[in-house]
């Protein structure tokens, strides 16, 4: 926790001075009498200076005003109880406490749609995780940029254009549905028809040479596809700062290749350029026919981004099945010295059906995202027939986002629409309902909560439990930020919703005759609203106003 950083640093100094170790980690305590736990002393329990370390820890912790009580167990676990009263004053300043000391410019590369293909269920996790991390880093004080990085160049485009030419299709009159049918047919023909393959290769060469006839067709296809993708993303509440693609860097690749060859970083091997970086397998930079790979355009994209923006860190939010590609990309970037910045692959698992297989249609195709949204929307409408269309849309997006983000990103999960739209259990509907309930409570009270000062002496157990829950915000936020794992915040939001509902259901708050108790609960409810709203922002959720 950021407010406990001084404590942690002082404890680190003790370990550093005594045993040359400065690693201190704070965890949530499983002991119901304590809030946090430090486990690091365990590994030093047999050290000759353990008693000195223990005494130093005790002295430091005892002076910490935020600590109400602590213990160092016989097995050298350090348990800490936070003084809620000392913490209350900081609840209004939570955004200040989660700010990093040294902000960076961080670029998030995610989404990655291709021309001719609709956004499908395989894009959902990239979109959700990418958007969430974008918001988390922004709230931490970093400068953030998101780039959808479209697959809008190269052989797939050449295949589509060739198919249109061969089949004598009027490109000026095709619509997005036509284009989505053409893409798989063109791809199949490329694999099975040598004549078609040669024509496509020729068109790809013309594309790379900026042939005016080919470029005109490409521009038509790109606009058609991009407009459709933007329409879907708007419905799903996803927006990007940059709409760059492979086409934006194609012109700089020859110069990049030449420079790397001059620096003896790459060399020709049977017509293909191969990295001289010592790796197994060898890293291929271009194909033997001179055509480019995804790696080629990804390398050029980094160079282009360096020219346009001061970027300190790039996060690629892409399926874990692409691990090898990103291992090769990142090792190449470091070996070539492209910017000497940080590059990270944020991998994730797949969304599966009830049988544990990748989620697809009955025809075996990946289900379109818009179809998944519409199915979810229909389910929401059947449950909440009295809600307006905007709220139903918001809740549908809540289901598609929360059900995704509550799972550790590396874990595959089964998409269960009935389960995810349930108002009870660990669902997006449940956390939205808790927030709406809290808002309604404050609205019905007609009391200006800004003028309420909490009276600690009148807290009951449910009040204290919720306040202790709120104290953990910075811990979970930091956990999500440092590990690029939004699921910590989804779990935490659900935990807070449970704690609020427990307080709410214990009694009729507005009818409580004890004014102080009533005011306490209203003020705590206000804190719950502000923290839940902030957590929803981190997750990319829009808070509902009614349900």
Shape: globular
Could you give the order of strands across the largest sheet?
1-2-4-3
Which residues sit in consecutive blocks of at least 5 with pLDDT less than 50? none
Rounded to an integer in angstroms, the radius of gyration calculated over CA atoms is 28 Å
Helix content: 40-55%
Main beta-sheet strand count, sense and barrel state: 4 strands, antiparallel
Number-wise, the strands total 12
Mean pLDDT: 91
Count of separate DSSP helical elements: 20
Structural class: alpha/beta
Percent in strands: 5-15%
What distance lies between the first and last C-alpha atoms, to the nearest angstrom? Answer: 34 Å
Walk me through the structure.
This protein has 20 helices and 12 strands. Helix 17 runs parallel beside helix 20. The chain is 52% helix and 9% strand. The longest helix is centred in the C-terminal third of the chain and has 25 residues. It has 547 residues and is an alpha/beta fold. It has a 4-stranded antiparallel beta sheet with strand order 1-2-4-3. The two termini are 34 Å apart. The protein is globular and about 85 Å long.
């Amino acid at each position: 926790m950021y407010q406990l950083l001084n404590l942690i640093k002082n404890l680190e100094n003790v370990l550093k001075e005594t045993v040359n170790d400065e690693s201190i980690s704070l965890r949530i305590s499983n002991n119901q009498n304590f809030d946090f736990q430090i486990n690091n002393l365990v590994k030093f329990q047999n050290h000759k200076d353990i008693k000195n370390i223990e005494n130093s820890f005790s002295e430091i912790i005892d002076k910490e005003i935020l600590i109400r009580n602590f213990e160092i167990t016989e097995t050298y676990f350090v348990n800490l109880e936070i003084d809620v009263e000392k913490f209350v004053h900081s609840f209004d300043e939570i955004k200040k406490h989660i700010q990093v000391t040294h902000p960076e410019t961080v670029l998030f590369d995610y989404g990655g749609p291709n021309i001719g293909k609709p956004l499908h269920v395989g894009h959902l996790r990239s979109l959700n995780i990418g958007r969430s991390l974008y918001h988390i880093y922004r709230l931490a004080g970093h400068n953030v940029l998101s780039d959808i990085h479209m697959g809008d160049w190269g052989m797939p485009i050449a295949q589509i254009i060739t198919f249109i030419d061969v089949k004598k299709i009027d490109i000026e009159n095709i619509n997005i549905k036509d284009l989505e049918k053409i893409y798989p047919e063109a791809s199949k023909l490329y694999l099975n028809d040598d004549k078609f393959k040669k024509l496509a290769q020729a068109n790809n060469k013309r594309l790379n040479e900026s042939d005016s006839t080919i470029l005109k067709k490409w521009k038509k296809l790109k606009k058609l596809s991009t407009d459709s993708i933007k329409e879907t993303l708007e419905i799903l509440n996803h927006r990007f700062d940059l709409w760059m693609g492979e086409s934006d860097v194609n012109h700089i690749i020859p110069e990049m290749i030449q420079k790397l060859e001059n620096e003896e970083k790459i060399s020709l091997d049977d017509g293909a350029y191969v990295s001289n970086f010592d790796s197994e397998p060898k890293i291929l930079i271009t194909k033997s026919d001179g055509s480019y790979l995804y790696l080629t355009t990804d390398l050029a994209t980094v160079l282009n981004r360096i020219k346009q923006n001061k970027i300190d860190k790039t996060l690629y939010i892409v399926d874990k099945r692409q691990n090898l590609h990103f291992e090769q990309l990142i090792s190449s970037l470091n070996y070539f010295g492209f910017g000497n910045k940080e590059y990270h692959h944020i991998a994730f698992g797949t969304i599966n059906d009830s049988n544990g297989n990748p989620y697809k249609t009955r025809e075996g195709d990946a289900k379109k995202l818009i179809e998944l949204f519409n199915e979810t929307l229909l389910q929401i409408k059947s449950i909440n027939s009295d809600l307006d269309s905007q709220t139903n849309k918001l809740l549908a997006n809540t289901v598609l986002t929360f059900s995704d983000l509550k799972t550790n990103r590396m874990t595959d999960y089964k998409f269960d629409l009935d389960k995810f739209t349930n108002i009870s259990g660990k669902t997006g509907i449940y956390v939205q309902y808790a927030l709406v309930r809290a808002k309604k409570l404050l609205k019905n009270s007609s009391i200006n909560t800004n003028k309420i000062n909490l009276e600690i002496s009148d807290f009951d157990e449910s009040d204290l439990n919720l306040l202790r829950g709120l104290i953990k915000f910075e811990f979970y936020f930091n956990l999500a930020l440092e590990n690029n794992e939004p699921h910590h915040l989804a779990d935490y939001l659900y935990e807070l919703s449970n704690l609020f509902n427990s307080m709410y259901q214990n009694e009729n708050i507005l009818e409580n005759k004890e004014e102080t108790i009533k005011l306490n609960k209203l003020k705590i409810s206000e804190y719950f609203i502000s923290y839940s709203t902030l957590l929803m922002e981190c997750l990319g959720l829009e808070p509902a106003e009614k349900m």
